[in-house]
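Deliverable D5.2: sample structural annotation.
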Amino acid sequence: MDVINQREAVPFTTVDGSTIRELLAHRNSSIRQQSLAEARLAPGQATTPHHHAVTEEIYYILSGSAAMTLGGETRPVGPGDAIAIPPGMRHTIRNTGSEELVFLCTCAPGYEHSDTFLES
């Protein structure tokens, strides 16, 4: 049985600039087809606009407030919001609040730096 506590997961910075803690993925568990991570952005911070050629993602906002841009659309998001991000879709998230933005990110297949393509 794989049980990983968030406090024990080692944080790292992704290609897009967010700090994540990979909770479950092929690197630390028996999971092979997806990954689950906790991501954090400081106030005013944003991920670099990017897309994934293969990976689809879901962001689930736990705390804080943000502006989510997906393709050409931007909208405010907050706790309880789940955002679907299809493969190939340009996206970025910006913390618009005064406290840290915390959200869960699921990826299928699991997150890999090599499937993250930065855009301007």
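Annotation notes: The radius of gyration is 13 Å. The domain at 13-118 is CATH 2.60.120.10 (Jelly Rolls).
The annotation will be released with the project's public dataset once the embargo ends.
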